[in-house]
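Teaching note: in complex prediction, the entire set of molecules is handled at once rather than each chain in isolation. The prompt given to students was simply: 'Predict the structure of this complex.' The entities are:
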Amino acid sequence: MLQFIVLGLFAGSIYALASLGIVLTYKTTGVFNFAYGGIAMFCAYVFWQLRDGWGLDQWIAIPLLLLVIAPLLGLILELLFRLLSQQSAEVQIVVCLGVLAFFTTIVNLVFVRHPDDSVRNLSTVFSHGSFGLTSNVSVTWNEAGTFILAIVMGLGLYAMQRWTRLGTAMRAVVDNRDLAGLIAVNARTIGRAAWIISTVFAAVAGVLLSVQENLVTYVLPFLVIYSFAPAVFGRLTNLGLAFAGSLTLGLTINILQKYGSSGSLAKFETSLPYLALFVLLVVYGKRLTEVKSSLRATTSRAVADPWRGYVVGAVALILALVLGPQVFADSTVGALAQAMAYGVVAITVVVLTGWTGQISIAQMSFAGVGAFTTAHTVASLGALYFPLGVLFGILIAVPVSLLVGIPSLRLSGLFLALATMAFALVMDSIVFASASISGGLTGLDLTEAKLGPISFDTATSQYYLCAVALGVTGLFALWLRHGPVGRRLQMVRDSPNAAATLGASLTVTKLAVFAACAAIAAVGGALLAVTQQTVIPANFSFDTSLQLLLVVVIGGRTLISGAVIAAGFYVVRLLPVPATVNKYLPLGIALAVIAIAQEPDGIGRVMLNQFQKSAALLYRIGRRPRTPVAGRTSSPQAVRPSV
Amino acid sequence: MTALLELDGVSVSYGSMKALSDVSLVVPEGCVVALLGPNGAGKTTTLRTISGLVRPERGHIRFRGRSIDRLAPHRVSSLGILHVPEGRGIFRSLTVAENLEMATYALRGAADSRSVVEQALDMFPALRDRLRQAAGTLSGGEQQMLAMARAFAAGPELIMLDEISMGLAPKITEQLFDTIRTAAASGVSMLLIEQYVDAALELADYCYVLEKGRVVGVGQPEDLRDSDALAAAYLGAGVA
Amino acid sequence: MSEPLLTASGITVRFGGLVANDNIDLEVAPVGITGLIGPNGAGKTTLFNVLTGLNRPTSGSVAYDGQDISRWSPHRRARAGMSRTFQRLELFGGMTVRDNLLAAWEASIPGGVMGRRQSEGRQLVDEVIARLQLGAVAGRQTGELPTGIGRMVELGRALCTRPRLLLLDEPSSGLDAKETAHFKEILVEVTDPEQAVQSEDGRGAPAVLMVEHDVRLVMDVCRMITVLDFGKRIACGAPDEVRNDPAVIAAYLGEPAA
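The expected output is the structure of the full assembly:
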C-alpha cells in the first residue's frame, strides 16, 4: 500500500505542476491553455535533443530550457493571445486548440524522423537508484526528487504571489483588471510574467513526465490533460486547491491500480481523470466563473446570409454528383465518398460551433457510436439490416448526447468545450477501447451494406449514397438555420438576456439541436463505416474530432461551405498525394487555424476579401489614366465583399 | 492659470450608442472641477475616456499640453492622473495594506512602500487598524476611504472621483467631503462627479453640466446655482 | 378610473445591509404611460427588476391582472403579456430587423410555430414595421444600425409579442435629442388605444411603465409619475404635481440653498 502512495504522490506532483501552470494563465489572462500538453511535450523533446541528442551537459541543458527556451515560448504565446484579446471566447479556444495541434505536429516533424523514434527513453535528471523507505518499500531518487521539486515550485509560486510586488500586482490584476490599469499596473507585463512562469512549469512537468512515461508523441499530451481535472477542481482560480486536487488524483489512480489491476477497474483508472473532469464541470456548473480576457466587450460579428454561396455550392454538388463517377477512377470515387461522409459530420460542427456558438470536440465520438453500432448490427443480422443499424446508431447517440448535453448546457463557452473534450476522452479510453464493443485495435469489419435491393459494395454506389446523405444533411442544416429554430438559436447567441425574457425556452432548443447533431454525426459515422469497410477506434478518437473542428474553422464555421472545404481536406488525406503533402498538411492546418480563426467565414472569405481588394485596386489602376477622379468615386462599400 | 487637463471636441461611442458628442472641457491647475448632469449624461464616460479605459472616436485629450488620448490606462495613471472609479475602487481580495502598496506602481522612480502606506494612513487613520484585513470585508465607507487613500498616496497630479458618496451614510459622506476640501486647499487638482448637486457646487471652482453626452452648461457654481440650465438638465424644461 | 393592470405593494428589497427598495407602492394603469423616475441610486432599477422577475423582493407583492405574480419567473411573466426592453440595447445583432421581430413573435407563441401560422406572424411583423417606420431598414442586420433605430427595433420586438404591458428600461439612454423626439412620437402613437397595432386576438394598445432618467421625456408622455429617492417613494402624481413637488426638487438638486 505504501508503495502505491509513494507512486501516487510522485505522479500527483507532476500533475500539480501542470495544473498550477494552467490555473495561473487562466486566472491572470483569461486564456485556458488547451495546448498545455503540447507545450509540455515540445519542451521535453527539446530537452532530449539538448542533452541526449546533442550531448550537452545536463546542467547546461536545464538552464537553457528553463531560463531561455521556455520563457521565450511563453512570450510568443502571450503575444499570440494578446492579439486575440478582442476576439470572442470561441475564437480563443479554437486558436488554443490550433496551438495544441501545432505543437503535436511539430514534434512529429522535427523529432520523430523514423517510426522507431516515436517512443524514446528519457533518463532521469536526478540521481539514479533508490533508497528504502521501509524494509519492503523503496523510493527512487527520481520519485523523491520530483516530489520535492513540485513542492518547492508550488511553494515558490505561492510565496511569489503572496509576498512579492509582482505577485501582489498579479493578484490585483486578477481581482480587477481595469482598476489595476488605473493604478499604473501594466496588465500586459503581468500577463507576460504569468505566461513565462506557466510555460516554465509546463517544461518541468513535460520533462518529469517523459522520464516516467518515456517520450511518446501520442501519449504525453493526454497525460497532461489529466491535470485539467485538478485545475477545474481549483475552480481554475485557486492554486492551492489545484495542487491538492492533483495529489489526490495521483493517489487515487495508483490506489485503484493496486486494487483493480486484474478486474474491470483496470481501464477505469486511465479514464478516471477524464471522468473526474466531466463530473467536476457538471457539479460546479454555473459556479465556475469565466474570466474575461478582454477589456472591451466583443460584439458578435454580423454575418450576412450567403445565398449566393448556397446556390453555387448546390450547383457544384449536383454537378459533382452526376459527373464524379464518370470522370474519376474507382479509388478516387471511393475517397470522394468517404470525404462526403466526413462532410456529413462536418456539417454538425458548423451547426454547433458556427451557429449556436458551442464548441464541441466530440463529434467524431458520436460518429463512432453510429459506426460501431451499424457494424455490429450488420455483422449479427446481415447486410439487409444496414438501415436498422443506422437507426440503432441514432437511438444510442441521442440519449448519449442528452447525457452530455443536459449538464453541459448549463455551462458556457469554455466549459462546454472542456466537457465535450472530457466526454470524447472517456469514450476513447473506456468505450472504444473495449474489445467487445470496438473489436480492439483492428476494429470491426463491415463488408456489405444494403438498402433494400441496392447494395453498397462498389465505390460508385457508396459515392451516390454519401452524396445524397450530404445533400439531405445540408438542406436540413439550412432549414435549421433559416427557419424558426435558426432564429431561436441566433437569439440565444446574440442576446441571451433578451431571448430569456422573451420566453423562448432555450435549453430545450439547444438540447434538441445538440441531439440532432449527435444523430446526424452517427449517420455520418455509419456512412464512414460503409466506405471504410473496417471500423477502427482510432478513426473516431478525440484527435479526429479535434482535427475535424480545426478544418471546419479553416473552411468557415458559419457556412455550409466550411463543411465542404473540410470534406476536401479528407479527399487530400485519402488520395495518393505526394508524401510531403500528407506530412506537412497537419502543420499547415494548425498554422492556418491560428492565423484565420478570427474570421468566422474561414479561408474562403479571407481569399475573397483579398481577391476583391486586388480587383478593386486593379479596377482603379485601370481607370485612373482616363479619368483621374474615378478612383475617388469607389466608396468603401464597393470594396467590401457583398456576399 | 494654466490648463492641466484639456478635452477638445471628444466624442465616444459604445458600438452604435453615442455616449459623448463633442465634449470640450478644461481643468485648470490647482482647481476642483465638477461634472454635473442626470444619470446617463456621460459623466462617467468622460472620466473613463480621460483615464484611457475608453478610446475617443474623435477629439483630443491633453495633459500638461501632451496628448494622452492614445495611451493605455497604466500609462495615463503613471502620469499622475488617478481615477477612483464609480462603486468602490478597491481590490477586494487583497489586504488593505496591499491595496495601499499598489500606489507605488503609479509613483515614478523608486518608492518606499512603507512610507507610501504611512502617508495614506495619516490621511485616513481609521484604516490603520485594518491593515491585515481583506479589503472586501471593510464597510462601504471604509472601502471608499481606502480607494481615495490609495489615489492620494500615488502622488497625484489630478484626481478624478466618480460618485464617492454613492450608497454611503450622510455622516461618512461628509467626512469624505472634508478630505476633498483639505486636499483641494493643499492645491491638488480634481475632477469629480457627485450626485449631491449642492455639495458639488460647494466644493467646485468650476462646473460643467452634461446632458445626453453634450456640455450644456458651464460656469462658476454661483452662476449655475441660479441658472435654469441645471434645473432643466435634471428636471426637464419648465420648472416653476 | 379602472383597476390598475399592475400593482406592486409594499416592495422592500434588501441586499445585505443595504435597503434598495423600502416599502414601495406602485400602480400601472391599464392604458397610457406610467413613469418611474428618481436620481441615480434611488432604487429604480431594483424595483424594475422586481417587476420583471429578475429580483425577488424581501417583502411585498406584485399583482398583475388580478393575479399574484410575485413568484413567477421572468419568462412566465413574458408569456402572460409583460414584455420588456433593456437599457443597453439587447438586439439580435446577427439577424435582420424583420427576423428580430419575427423571432419575438415566434417566441411568444406557446408550443412554437409550424407552417400555416407563419403567415399570421408575418402580417403582424409587417404592420409593426410600417407603424414604427422601419420599412427602410427591415432587411438590414440590427448589429449595424444606429442606436436610435435599435431602440425602435427593440420597441417593435416587444410589440410583436402582443403585450398587455410594456416595461421600458431607460429607453432614451444613448439617444440624442432628435432620436428621443422621434422615439417619443412613435411611443405615444402605438400606445394610444385609438391607433394601436391590432393583433388577431384583439389585444389593443399595451399599457406602459417606463423607467427613465430623461425627466423631460417622462413629463411629456406620462399620465402618472412615481418618484423614488433613497429607495423610498417620495412622490406620485400627474406631471405637473410632481414637477413642483419640493421633495422632488430637493432630491434632484439637493436641499435648496438657504
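Point out the following to students. The mean pLDDT of chain C is 85. The first strand of chain C starts at residue 6 and ends at 15.
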